[in-house]
# Entry
Amino acid sequence: MTEAEDFIYQFEDDQREIMLYLHTLLTENLNLTEKMRYKIPFYFGKSWICYLNPDKKGNVEFAFVRGNELSNEQGLLENKDRKQVYSITFSKLQDIPEDTLLEVLQEAILLDETIPYESKRK
# Structure
């Protein structure tokens, strides 16, 4: 079992189901690499693409590191007063709009593959 899977299995019920679903989608279907950073699972292509952040209320925030650069044509992403990271919060597995989420993921992966990430921090 990977470090990210160990992390996911610490949670129960809906949080575990959501994170397992997204983890499998990202690692097996989209071939992203997982790494634990800041004590949560991040997923990489050439650079950081997204991460899973469970909250204390039983939800899972699925965040895109370069969310501000995505089109958000689907209207799923929220910035939550952040300049760069945009996310979607899920509370139940059946709340995940699979096809729409795949569109956002494909765009995030394409962005990662075609435009190198440059940190804005100085």
About this structure: The CA atoms of residues 2 and 34 lie 9 Å apart. Residues 3-49+56-83+100-114 form one domain. The first helix runs from residue 3 to 8.
